[in-house]
Amino acid sequence: MGISIGMVGLGAFGPSFVNLFKLHPKVDRVALCDLDPDKLSTRSKQFQISETYNSLDEIIKTDIDALVIITQHWMHAPQAIKAMKAGKHVYTAVPAAYSLEECDQLVETVKSTGQIYMNGETSFFYPSVAFCRKKASEGVFGKFVYSEGEYFHDLSHGLIQVCQHRYGKNWKHNTGLPPFWYITHSTSGIISVTGARMTEVSAKGYVDTEHDEWWRKDTATGNLFSNEVGLFRMSDGGTARIAEFRRIGHPGTVRFRFFGTEGSFEADVSGARWCHKKGWEPVEPTMQHEPLPEPLASNLGGHQGSHAYLVHEFVDSIVNERHPRINVWQAVRYCAPGLIAHKSALKDGETMKIPDWGSAPS
Length: 362
Ligand SMILES: NC(=O)c1ccc[n+]([C@@H]2O[C@H](COP(=O)([O-])OP(=O)(O)OC[C@H]3O[C@@H](n4cnc5c(N)ncnc54)[C@H](O)[C@@H]3O)[C@@H](O)[C@H]2O)c1
Fold this sequence. Notes:
The chain has 362 residues and is α/β, with parallel strands linked by helices. The chain has helices at 15-23, 37-47, 56-59, 76-85, 100-113, 127-138, 155-167, 184-194, 302-319, 328-346, and strands at residues 3-8, 27-33, 52-53, 66-69, 89-92, 117-119, 144-152, 198-207, 225-234, 239-245, 253-260, 263-268, 271-276, 279-283, 352-353.
């Protein structure tokens, strides 16, 4: 018998996962849930799913095994905690948490409830990141000396609309979020490839004086930085640089460079390269980087095919009663560095320590 899944949050992003859960061979029941009755009825018809619920509070009272929470970004940790305490396994979209206190509470809830928790970080399963994890496992990087991760997403590329639909009528009060509060696309690649964590950071922010209608003192966060960049010390002695830019003349990207004592990986708009001391060769990281059950293997979905891998990782971890690779301890390692880096940028680069919650028990 398969497991049952409740999809909570059917806004812009949540629906792209519904069919993948429906298709997974170990899932035999999918229910839908949203506060908005119009979204619920539209998606119920689209996906031919008749079991629907009007709120998280309603669906956590059912016998459904696991909830996939793809609600607004500041709701993830409190909703995940509530659902785990009600006996549900939980997957949330990124970021896992929005404060260090939420990181504490999430880890404690996983420990005290024993429920499975996974964070849906798409970059973890990007072809280039999977390619580099494999190279790292083969030892061909040598020791990691330096890595780079960057997420470029200009304000004009849909971010205004995202703010409007996530915050509703209060959207103007909620513009200009600190870019480092959404750092996980960059940190997940670096941490999962190097196997090291970020221990301290010195960061700087860029104030775009011509666009102060977005980054303003009178918003909920009062953040003025459209772009933030940080230099991180890694626990293996290496360093990493992360750039989170929201005001940039660029089509947009999530990309990485990794430099080791024996080999390196570089990628830019012209392609990807594996480099070593004698030269370099072009490489093409594949979207088929891990086995997946059919029909998911033939239906990888969005964000460079990462959606199908995320779905399978969550389902498989529940079925086999194991912690997923993006478990709670990893998830807080992905978001806490950004929370501290923003504080460092506010102090013009003061070096600050990054807390750690340890690793998943084996
Ligand atoms: N690459 C990625 O990893 C990636 C890409 C896009 C979005 N996201 C994340 O996905 C999340 C959702 O983004 P979105 O653009 O779809 O947001 P959205 O505002 O369009 O959708 C959120 C939905 O959640 C519903 N909701 C909120 N509280 C609820 C509750 N208590 N019960 C039931 N439903 C509830 C809302 O009614 C809304 O329909 C965000 O947190 C974002 O960070 C991640």
